Amino acid sequence: MTLAPDSLLDPDEPDPVAVHRPDGRSPYFLTCDHAGRLLPRRLGDLGIPAFELERHIGWDIGAAGLTRQMAQRLDATAIRQIYSRLVCDCNRPPDAPDFATLISENTHIPGNRDLTPAELAARREEIWRPYQEAIARLLDARKAAGQPTLLVAMHSFTPVYKGQSRPWHVGLLYNRDRRLADAIRPLLQTAQVPIDSGHAEAGKPLVVGDNEPYRLTDETDYTVPVHGEKRGLVSLEIEVRQDLIASPQGQAAWAVLFETLLREVQGRFVN
Questions:
Q1: How confident is the model over 157-203, as pLDDT tens digits?
Q2: Which CATH code fits 17-266?
Q3: Region labeled Disordered — which residues (predicted)?
Q4: What CA–CA distance (Å, rounded) separates 107 from 100?
């Protein structure tokens, strides 16, 4: 690992933030905190084999493609973060123990061991903070323009975690605000795995998790508690099982389903 006491990203490296449809007219505002798997050049390979970055520990598989498809179909603004969650987790407070995790699932991350305060600060200031500030700017602009906002944070989860199978196809995660979760849950519970998704379970009734496979809290999450709840926005985190959206076909099919359901409940919250 190459240490970078003063800075992290070289001038020619990609900006951590990508924005889609900044002038989207939909009330839905989409985020994708774990959209990418890039590593800053100065961090080398973090001491892990390249295949580890292909797994869920490196990023939310399928989430970026699904988010882009949803943004297109809904005419919604979407923002995504393109560096790996192993560099820093943009859905965590910067003082969280796993902000730059030492172990993810069962994989140790040597490049995150014994980080100095300056090294942690570089990750926070050059990746985490620009992403959070970009979200805040976009939300501020919508408020100033009188544009209503329903915040939806898009994620994906593994079919199996530490040997335990997860039965859910999709999970709805919320903290204090359960309004959007309560609105969309019964619709999902009567839906099916999209027929045209190309998945072996296509056509089966959806198994919907209620704060599963994770529970959303102030300590373990950032986007919904800070950008959603603290602003008083209707907000929700949606988790889709990653094997369902690993392919472009699956992403497209799920985007159609979410567009249909989100449009159906939209009128309950905005005129």
A1: 999 988 788 999 999 999 999 999 999 999 999 999 999 999 999 99
A2: 3.40.630.40
A3: 1-23
A4: 13
CA 56 to chain centre: 12
Q: Over the chain, what HEC string results?
A: CCCCCCCCCCCCCCCCEEEECCCCCCCEEEEECCCCCECCHHHCCCCCCHHHHHCCCCCCCCHHHHHHHHHHHHCCEEEEECECCCCCCCCCCCCCCCCCCCEECCEECHHHCCCCHHHHHHHHHHHHHHHHHHHHHHHHHHHHCCCCCEEEEEEEECCEECCEECCCCEEEECCCCCHHHHHHHHHHHCCECCHHHCCCCCCCECCEEECCCCCCCCCCCCHHHHHHHHHCCEEEEEEEEHHHCCCHHHHHHHHHHHHHHHHHHHCCCCC
The residue whose two tokens read 């123990």 is 97
Residue 58, both tokens? 């490196």
1-43 tens-digit pLDDT: 444 456 899 999 999 999 999 999 999 999 999 999 999 999 9
Q: What is the pTM of this model?
A: 0.95
To the nearest whole number, what is the mean pLDDT of the chain?
95
Query: What six digits make up the tokens of 174?
Result: 């919320």
